[in-house]
Target: Large ribosomal subunit protein uL10
Amino acid sequence: MGLNLEDKKAVVAEVAAEVAKAQTIVLAEYRGIQVSQLTQLRANARKSGVYLRVLKNTLVRRAVQGTSFEGLAEHMSGPIIYSISEDAVAAAKVLNDFAKANDKLVLTAGCYDGNVLDKAGVQALASIPSREELLARLLGVMQAPVSGFARALAALAAQKGETESV
Model:
């Protein structure tokens, strides 16, 4: 049974709210994927903070109208699963990682920073480390000189203690 007008308006409003705070939207075709695999994909998306839904293309076209994601409208045909995220790479990473293990999920297009991406562009975006990974690397780089200095002081103190006991 189809959605009535009020339900359609609610879906458009919900998607428009997600799109308003999103940095990235990725589209993928999901023909032939088993329900258990889709459930796993949804669980991975939830863990990554990604809004992942199978939606009517016409409703999503209305939701993205007038936004920087409007260019994706021409790619919205067929059975599409929509991945929307506030994190620039999370939406692409979730679908790309799943597509590597499951050949039935086919990345079709994406949009980041107002630029429509093809499949290769989405894969390139997915290969960028996440914000958390980059922050962890930065923290490691910042801690390295301090921890090296602390080790040098400890070694110096240990060496001084050995010479005093002799």
User: Anything to note?
Assistant: The two ends are 90 Å apart (CA to CA). Residues 131-165 form the longest helix (35 residues).
